[in-house]
Design goal:
498 residues; binds nicotinamide-adenine-dinucleotide; disordered N terminus; Tumour Suppressor Smad4; binds adenosine-5'-triphosphate; Rossmann fold; alpha+beta; NADK; NADP; NAD; ATP binding; 26% strand; ATP-binding
Length: 498
């Protein structure tokens, strides 16, 4: 696609030919990205299959104890089957995900501007069985009626198209064995947070939590306070961080939404269930009260606990082939975001010019300050500030929200979760553009560079304080003060006498 400013002086036939070439190029790149994604999924499935076979061979007795009939994902919370893609409808009637102990042998997506620059890192080939607690994710076990609704989308017996099974499910986590390993993440530079962490560590030890991990910075701070914290474990290397999903049963965050985003960013692939204690200012996604941590953790570790699968977006920057005289890498980089990826015009005073495609179909050219591509969880963050809709985190969609578009008719869109979006800078764009991932890791984009965004198969399984909708609506009302208005006075006329 060639920008309008270039086209308008050219003879129509030349302009049309150029536009056709650009569209074909974008389509070919889209197709390549989709094939790459399919290839990666295939690799992942094969490795899961291998792990499952090896796991069964190594520990058949343990397997016998797990009386389940169907397994979607082994070892990792994988939300591929919960997406509402037409291709996935066959598998959506499987009612649960099951966690099982697996061999530490998987490929994990890696990202971080500073820590992880490779697309994928092979984790250690460790043939030990992981010591993680086993759990099952089921449809609401309390509500028997839901089990009855667990049938195929289309029944061929009577030809009725039935839509009772939707991807919007209330999922419950049931532990098969007690969780014994937690990773605590703290908001930095907050004395109250560190104090709570110290208290929580001792309490968790009393509860037979044998392994407690923290970040290296936190371990150093705790050791400064008290040398008895020596037993606390930490992830010293990038590799340990990448593999930590395999040894942690529960992730606990003490901070605000930013700490939860930080925790999610450390897990470049599958992530254990996360409990977010509110010690920040807004706390939209951090629903647990820190003063009640004992009661809350006791209940969660006993189970069942409701969880919300907060879907993340997989983002990939594809660089246009060019001679780089700057330090920008020409390799493509990949990111996982819980809230959103935004593209803005940075310091440039020129209007941004972003050509957008959805599954290869031209959508629009965003001319304004930029664009936000957000997950449903991110709908209440930057996207909300730019006028996007507030979306329940379990609605399977991708939000497409412009930032200050210079147009009277540009409205935000919500697209289905199975699409792949592509945002490209025209080769002759006037200004610069910057992509940010959950507000961090800013990357400069140049003419011809593209950003490809799709729903990731690795959600953040966030433990609910009550249940998914209750928590979300409470946050909308109490954190965002949604629709706060003085109640209209009642009519004071005397009621008609009978
Ligand atoms: N104009 C804006 O509103 C704006 C601008 C830039 C970034 N942000 C948001 O800030 C996020 C990064 O958060 P941070 O804490 O690291 O930065 P931060 O410290 O700048 O805080 C951003 C604020 O957004 C809130 N927030 C974050 N995620 C939220 C969510 N999903 N729902 C509701 N509120 C949420 C946080 O509680 C915090 O009050 C980005 O992902 C982006 O969504 C918003
Ligand atoms: N463990 C961590 N390491 C490094 N940075 C972190 C860590 N936890 C949080 N941060 C960063 O610290 C900043 C503030 O954290 P957070 O948002 O949790 O606190 P807050 O702003 O007080 O709370 P709220 O988000 O509720 O307004 C965020 O930008 C976040 O990315």
């Amino acid at each position: 696609m060639v920008s309008n400013c270039t086209l308008h002086n050219m003879p129509t036939a030349v302009a049309k030919a150029l536009e056709d070439v650009a569209v074909k190029k974008a389509l070919a790149q889209d197709e390549a990205a989709q094939w790459k994604h399919k290839y990666e999924l295939e690799l992942l499935r094969n490795s899961q299959l291998e792990r499952s076979i090896a796991s069964r061979a190594l520990d058949s007795s343990r397997q016998d104890n797990l009386s389940v009939t169907s397994v979607i994902s082994e070892g990792d919370i994988d939300a591929t089957e919960f997406r509402s893609s037409p291709q996935n409808t066959q598998t959506r009637s499987n009612g649960y995900l099951q966690y099982k102990e697996t061999i530490q042998n998987s490929k994990v997506l890696s990202y971080s501007p500073d820590l992880f620059n490779n697309l994928y890192l092979d984790t250690q080939l460790d043939s030990k069985i992981s010591e993680k607690a086993s759990f099952t994710l089921t449809l609401d076990p309390v509500d028997e009626r839901r089990k009855e609704q667990n049938h195929d989308l289309v029944s061929f017996d009577d030809g009725d198209i039935n839509a009772e099974v939707r991807s919007n499910k209330q999922i419950a986590l049931v532990w098969n064995s007690s969780p014994a390993s937690v990773f605590i993440l703290l908001k930095p530079n907050a004395a109250a947070v560190q104090q709570l962490c110290e208290e929580m560590v001792w309490w968790l030890r009393e509860q037979n939590v044998t392994k407690i991990y923290v970040e290296p910075r936190v371990k150093a701070e705790l050791m400064e306070e008290n040398a008895d914290f020596e037993f606390i474990q930490t992830c010293e290397t990038e590799k340990q961080l990448v593999t930590i999903n395999k040894s942690v049963d529960l992730v606990i965050t003490l901070g605000g939404d930013g700490t939860m985003l930080w925790a999610a960013s450390l897990f470049k692939g599958p992530m254990p269930p996360l409990v977010a204690f509110s010690m920040g200012s807004l706390g939209f996604m951090t629903k647990f009260q820190s003063s009640m941590y004992r009661e809350s953790l006791q209940a969660i570790m006993k189970g069942p606990a409701y969880i919300t699968l907060r879907h993340r977006l997989h983002c990939q920057i594809i660089r246009h082939d060019r001679e780089t005289d700057d330090n920008t890498s020409s390799e493509s980089a990949e990111y996982l975001v819980l809230n959103e990826v935004s593209i803005d015009r940075g310091m440039s005073s020129a209007l941004s010019n972003l050509e957008c495609f959805c599954d290869g179909h031209f959508v629009t050219i965003v001319q304004g300050d930029g664009l936000i591509i957000s997950s449903p969880s991110g709908s209440t963050a930057y996207s909300l500030a730019a006028g996007g809709s507030v979306v329940h985190p379990q609605v399977p969609g991708i939000l497409f929200t412009p930032i200050c578009p210079h147009s009277l008719s540009f409205r935000p869109l919500i697209l289905p979760d199975y699409v792949t979006l592509r945002v490209q800078l025209p080769l002759n764009c006037r200004g610069q553009a910057w992509a940010s991932f959950d507000g961090k890791g800013r990357q400069q984009l140049w003419g011809g560079d593209a950003l490809i965004v799709r729903m990731s198969e690795w959600p953040v399984p966030a433990v609910c304080e009550k249940e998914s909708s209750g928590d979300f609506l409470r946050s909308v009302r109490e954190s965002l003060h949604w629709n706060r208005r003085n109640i209209q006075l009642a009519d004071e006329r005397p009621s008609p006498s009978h």
